[in-house]
Structures are given as structure tokens and as C-alpha cells.
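Consider the record:
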Amino acid sequence: MKTTEKESGNLRMGMMFLSICYIAIGAILLIFPNIALTDLCYALGILFMISGVINVAWYLIKKGYLVPGRFGFAFGVTQVMVGLYAVIKTQDFAFAFAQVLAICMMLDSIMKSQFSMDLLRLKAEKWWALLLVSLTMIGLSMLILVDPFSTEGSRNLYTYIVLILDGAANIISLLILSVWQKRYLQATYTDKEE
């Protein structure tokens, strides 16, 4: 039980960190339009490589190989490879940046739809509101992939705004889910005591 709670907490913290990154990246690119996307991609490539090396080291230090189903090493190597590609082929990576973000936001939105189903099972009154938000974010992300924009600048502006909205929606949904999980556990504990 404690292992499940710990893994759930790690996932929640990972999503929270990713959401904060979404908001920060979107805000930086909106506030400072003179920052070249290639510069940002280069910096992200370096961060990915550092994060990958840390994940590989963490896997080895924490003896992740003793626990089946742990992919810290593979995940770390993947991060290093993606980071290396971003540094070496920055122009190509920058070109695909909006599509990569859109795919990430779609995956996040699918997670939010999972959270809405979790809220339904936890008997939250307005679980459907989160489902609507997740479906809306899926639609907004799909629009980036379809690319109906007349200029690259308008597509980038739209992408940055959706990125900020998705990050904020992730944080709010994680907080709401956490509150309802605590309520449910307290109610279950109270019922067992009676």
C-alpha cells in the first residue's frame, strides 16, 4: 500500500513539475518574443541531457535493477539521446517543437480525462467539469498538430497560450484530485471505525 502511495506521489510530483515547466516556457516565450526558439531548444537539450545522466545515476545508486518494472536507466538514456539531438540538430528540433509540445499536451489531457474518471469513482459532484476541460485541451492540442495557421508566428503564439492553459489545468486537476482522494480515504477510515 505504501509503495503504491509513494509511486502515486512521484507521478503527481512529476506532473506538477512538468506543468510548472509548461507555464514557465509558455510565459517566457510570450513575454520575450525576441528569444529565438532555437536558443530555447538548445537550452532544453542541455537540460534533457543533464536530467538523463541524473536518472541513470539515480537508477544505479538506488539499485533500481533490483525492482522489476523500473525503467530509470532506459528513461535516462532516452533523455540523453533526445537532448543530444536537440543540441546537435537545433534547427530541426525547433521546427518540430510545436508538434512535440502538442503531443505532450494531448497526453497530459488524456491523463486529465483519467483524473475525471477517478473523481467520478471518488463520488466528486462535478467530475464532469474536469472531463470537459480535458476534452477541450485535447481539441486545442490537436489544432496545433493540424496547423491551420497562416504564419509560423501565429502558430507559435497559439501554442504558447495553450501551453500555459494546459499547465494551469494540470495543476488545478492534480490539486482537486488530491483533495477528493483525501476525503475518500477519511470517509473510508471513519466507516471502518464505526
User: Anything to note?
Assistant: Residues 152-193 form the longest helix (42 residues). The chain has six helices and no strands. Helices lie at 2-31, 37-61, 72-88, 90-121, 127-146, 152-193. The chain has a mean pLDDT of 84.
